[in-house]
Amino acid sequence: MEPTKSLMAGPEFILAALAASKGATHSPVQVQKLFFLLDRKLAGEVGGPYFNFTAYHYGPFDRTIYDLLERLAEQGFVEISSNPALRYRTYRLTPEGQRVGGTFLNQLDQHIVDYMGKLSDFVRGLSFAELVSAIYAAYPEMKVNSVFRELYT
Q1: Cβ(14)–Cβ(92) below 8 Å
Q2: Residues 6+ apart with CB under 8 A from 7
Q3: How does pLDDT run across 7-49, given as a tens digit for each residue?
Q4: What's this model's pTM, rounded to 2 decimal places?
Q5: Which domains does the chain have, with CATH numbers?
């Protein structure tokens, strides 16, 4: 998978955004909220939106993100780890994924690259409850089907 001059597709966008995270590991809620925020804040600058988020149990959700991460893992670009103590999977780029993602990232303006990195830091810097709560505060329409609705209104 190599970059083209045309706009990125979903898999390339995922690789670019995770490459901006510089090898960081993301939980499921972190990847969902990262790509939600990127779609909301940068879509016009990066050829998106790439996903179709709907309000779900913990805010914005699109199953396509997990499907693409699985496909990228099969291609050797993403490492998906399971830790029984955590009860969920984690996602990060492999060295090859970082290299290929970096080529896509290099097609973007520096302010976009910097913003992607800052959003990754933001979603990873909050606890699960803090992250979901922050998304609900900024995007109240995303809490309509939430199991957290009672706690964070």
Answers
A1: no
A2: 46, 47
A3: 468 899 999 999 999 989 999 999 999 999 999 999 888 888 9
A4: 0.89
A5: 10-143 (1.10.10)
